[in-house]
Amino acid sequence: KIRKHIQHRIDIGTLKIVGNYDHLEDIPGELIMKVLAFDTDLEKIERVKARLSEKSNLEVSSSSRGNIEITHADAQKGTAVASIAEKLGVSLEDTMAIGDNLNDKSMLERVGYPVAMANAIPELKEHAKFVTDTNENSGVAKAIYKVLENNE
């Protein structure tokens, strides 16, 4: 399922495959927002993740086993949620976020109603107030209804 999603993103042009990261800055007309690295060698992925995590201007996470996502430290879902809430005049304590993988952690750590999907990785579930159903079984809708019912 993940491979299909990745292939679709490649097909529509939102992901580009490169054989070498050394010359990413040399691609004319491209704005690089995130670098995804994939490998079947999970130990290698963990070593690279650990080394990159030492850089203060980078944020390294993953959305599945065997990959790492590298972004600028300020380009996180948690930062985005805080910015949107501020623009809308909504307190983060009154905000809900729902996630399923490590790239959602910064978002769940900032909001008053952090929710993990049932299919979320265990580490993310530790940051949630509650776990909703899976994404294939209307988990997002169920989480919204639960929070609304508890706050009437």
Tell me what the structure shows.
This protein has 6 helices and 6 strands, in the order H-E-H-E-E-H-E-H-E-H-E-H. The termini are far apart. The mean pLDDT is 86. Helix content is 37%, strand content 16%. It has 2 domains: 31-72, no CATH class; 77-150, HAD superfamily/HAD-like (Rossmann fold, 3-Layer(aba) Sandwich), CATH 3.40.50.1000. It has a 3-stranded antiparallel β-sheet, with helices on one face. It has a 3-stranded parallel β-sheet with strand order 4-5-6. By secondary structure, it is α/β, with parallel strands linked by helices.
Biggest sheet: strands, sense, closure? 3 strands, antiparallel
How would the global form be characterised?
globular
CATH topology of the largest domain: Rossmann fold
By DSSP, the count of extended strands is: 6
Order of helices and strands: HEHEEHEHEHEH
Mean pLDDT: 86
Rg (C-alpha, Å):
17 Å
CATH architecture of the largest domain: 3-Layer(aba) Sandwich
Given helix and strand content, the structural type is: alpha/beta
Annotation field: number of helices = 6
CATH class of the largest domain: Alpha Beta
Give the number of domains.
Answer: 2
Q: Strand share of the residues? A: 15-25%
Strand order of the largest sheet: 1-3-2
Amino- and carboxy-terminal Cα gap = 38 Å
Low-confidence stretches: none
Please tag this protein with its features.
single chain; 152 residues; alpha/beta; Rossmann fold; 2 domains; 3-stranded parallel sheet; 6 helices
